[in-house]
């Protein structure tokens, strides 16, 4: 296996420009890249002495054409533990499903985002750690853009959503903080969709994926000849989004001088392109998002206090999933319904054993990680219900089966499935529901019958047929 200081990436790609980009990006993480232009050349290289050192493969789908999945299977047959990532311009979930079933360990969409590639390479580096299997295996499913898609009843979460819904109707800046995967981007898009600027221009910028000078030109624009390499005039997004909304993800990753410049622009409403002798009055609403609390960064001198104060006109904090574990059943059912809509996948329900496993994990990748784990399980599970066996990586991490006491305390005590994924007999489910109702209403049989929608005589008859003690 390649060491941390000697990691070799095989790139199968016949596009020189893309090969140069991937090689440069991979070098940031300490990867050396060998580029081959065909599947035949890839097979020959893997069979060589150098090929034995290959720690990961990045395959452009267009190289093998329609036979990409066949080629992936052949690679997995030869090197079962070798991480294989597919790079494609297609956003079709069908291809993602087919690639994963063939043995691909990740699926990246062109044009490739630098941070996305680096994240995939980090996961490939530590393939022996089962926790890395829980990282997203595909790009996110297309997301709905309204607040109804924000599933959950936990108090901190509902408070954040209510605050966002109120702020959406305004015109001021908004700052959303929360760990990676908590749904910040989805919330920002929902706010824009619910705002009076919904039909106006909107752009999202990932500030972490761009060098400082490139980000400055992207936001503010520049005049021709403003600096070496400025061969043409460029209009910045602050000007392009006049009357609309500009979303800045990972806003804490902007260089400090650029933060100060952005704060001045938001304060005055005037954007001055680099090299320009005059500025332009704009009306642009800025949404910022970050994984780290800006207050702490300001204290440490790493973030502009002026920009923090402007953005914090509305400050929303999305809680991590481990602080809203009670929302996991609803989130799971929501994601399963969304996944079932994707071509090539079918509807799955969740068995009690599977739900128990999901509730026992602390989800460092939050809601996005839960979605990715469910997607992967649906790809490989042939049975109708997802059980504990559908999540082998989670089972390996958690060890012995977690106690279901906490789940039952949240009202999830009626089991619908056997451990093998098959439905329990109807009379067993019915008996559990009646026992649950008797306990919930403390043996008040008239209330039990009323809540179950049956007469008292019918209730007593069922108690006798099912052998239930009405003191249960």
UniProtKB/TrEMBL annotation:
UniProt key word Ion transport: no
| A Pfam family per the record | Response_reg
The protein, known as:
DNA-binding transcriptional regulator NtrC
- PANTHER family tied to this protein: DNA-BINDING TRANSCRIPTIONAL REGULATOR NTRC, TRANSCRIPTIONAL REGULATORY PROTEIN
Describe the function of this protein.
Member of the two-component regulatory system NtrB/NtrC, which controls expression of the nitrogen-regulated (ntr) genes in response to nitrogen limitation. Phosphorylated NtrC binds directly to DNA and stimulates the formation of open promoter-sigma54-RNA polymerase complexes.
Q: Which InterPro entries match?
A: AAA+_ATPase, AAA_lid_NorR, CheY-like_superfamily, Homeodomain-like_sf, HTH_Fis, P-loop_NTPase, Sig_transdc_resp-reg_receiver, Sigma_54_int
List residues modified as 4-aspartylphosphate: 60
The primary site where this protein sits is cytoplasm
Instruction: Report the superkingdom from the record.
Output: Bacteria
What the entry lists under CDD domains is as follows: AAA, REC
Tell me the compartments it is located in. Cytoplasm
Q: Which UniProt keywords apply?
A: Activator, ATP-binding, Cytoplasm, DNA-binding, Nitrogen fixation, Nucleotide-binding, Phosphoprotein, Repressor, Transcription, Transcription regulation, Two-component regulatory system
Residue limits of the Sigma-54 factor interaction domain? 150-379
The Response regulatory domain sits at: 8-125
